[in-house]
């Protein structure tokens, strides 16, 4: 359970990075 949660958190971080990049591009 904890492992899955950690993996999900990592995925969320990646998504946030993509969003930040899009904002910077703008």
Automatic annotation (TrEMBL):
It comes from the Eukaryota. This is Uncharacterized protein. The lineage of its organism: Eukaryota, Viridiplantae, Streptophyta, Embryophyta, Tracheophyta. Residues 1-26 are annotated as: Disordered.
């Amino acid at each position: 359970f904890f492992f899955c949660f950690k993996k999900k958190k990592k995925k969320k971080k990646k998504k946030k990075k993509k969003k930040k990049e899009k904002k910077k591009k703008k």
